[in-house]
UniProtKB/TrEMBL annotation:
One of its GO terms (molecular function) is oxidoreductase activity, acting on a sulfur group of donors, NAD(P) as acceptor. This is Alkyl hydroperoxide reductase subunit F. Binds 1 FAD per subunit. One of its GO terms (cellular component) is cytosol. Coiled coil: none annotated. Its cofactor is FAD. Serves to protect the cell against DNA damage by alkyl hydroperoxides. It can use either NADH or NADPH as electron donor for direct reduction of redox dyes or of alkyl hydroperoxides when combined with the AhpC protein. NAD(+) binds at residues 142-156. Disulfide bonds join 130-133. Signal peptide: none annotated. GO terms for biological process: response to reactive oxygen species. Keywords: Disulfide bond, FAD, Flavoprotein, NAD, NADP, Oxidoreductase, Redox-active center. The keyword Flavoprotein applies.
Amino acid sequence: PYDVLVVGGGPAGAAAAIYAARKGIRTGLVAERFGGQVMDTVGIENFISVPYTEGPKLAASLEQHVKEYGVDIITDQRAAGIGKGELLEVPLASGATLKSRSVILATGARWRELNVPGEAEYRTRGVAYCPHCDGPFFKGKRVAVVGGGNSGIEAAIDLAGIVEHVTVLEFADTLRADEVLQRKARAMGNIEIITNAQTTEVVGDGSKVTGMKYTDRVSGDSRLLELAGIFVQIGLVPNTEFLKGSEVELTRFGEVMIDTRGATSMNGVFAAGDATTVPYKQIIISMGAGATAALSAFDHLIRS
Ligand code: FAD
């Protein structure tokens, strides 16, 4: 059995594994895909002290750093639950079960996609999901934000300070964002809000996004917006389906509930990164959270 078993191999899981292994305790890391969302990222400009890097390069450095320690890395395996016998048990989809004295959950999240033609083709070539990450790439250009919830309107306000113009497209007939955010957005001169808009296609010139088509759900007319970028803000879904029904408490959005030390509601189980209730989902924040969870797991082990 392990002393610490990390589930997930993104920035949170990698940081947790390194911090745990540096305590000289038996550390395992199981992940479907090492690198996590970082593998889907092109330019990264906010990983502090590294002015520019690219996702696959950062993911390779993460893996190399973890491999400098005696971490038992198991990839291409999916955790299917969490339970407790004498030790904590993590059953895998393959049928095997991993046992450990403590567990750190770092399974991350995925952006909900529009599922319209062109979206996958132009992902990272105009289709973006993170305004903190990619907003500055669209300086002085016209962009759209799809989604009129809190994250969509926050993104629009954020982007409006950088880009020339923001069009918000909301499927419903009203915005779901908090009134205070809506007021702020409406007061900005370069944000236009269109409700009853069903996005139907991401349009591009073969190398980058040039626009977006949507249907006006009231008139039934199809319209084309000319744009350089599209920010999809229709939800971030935590990869925590496998924890449903376990002792690990989730919010109604599926986020693992953690305290400031990264502890979950299940004894000996800690969590970090995008899969949790941590505010703001970013690489640097996930890494810090992974370190916190590992130190808390170590603290738990020396007390039990
Ligand atoms: P993830 O990176 O999501 O990693 C989760 C890990 O868990 C993966 O290894 C996955 O395979 C594994 N996993 C999931 N489910 C299971 C399971 N059941 N069993 C086993 N393993 C499992 N942030 C920035 O700071 N700057 C940026 O420029 C930036 N750009 C981004 C661009 C894109 C396109 C995307 C999608 C995200 C971007 N982010 C950026 C956000 C950043 O990538 C995330 O905040 C960060 O990766 C979260 O780290 P994590 O370790 O919590 O989760």
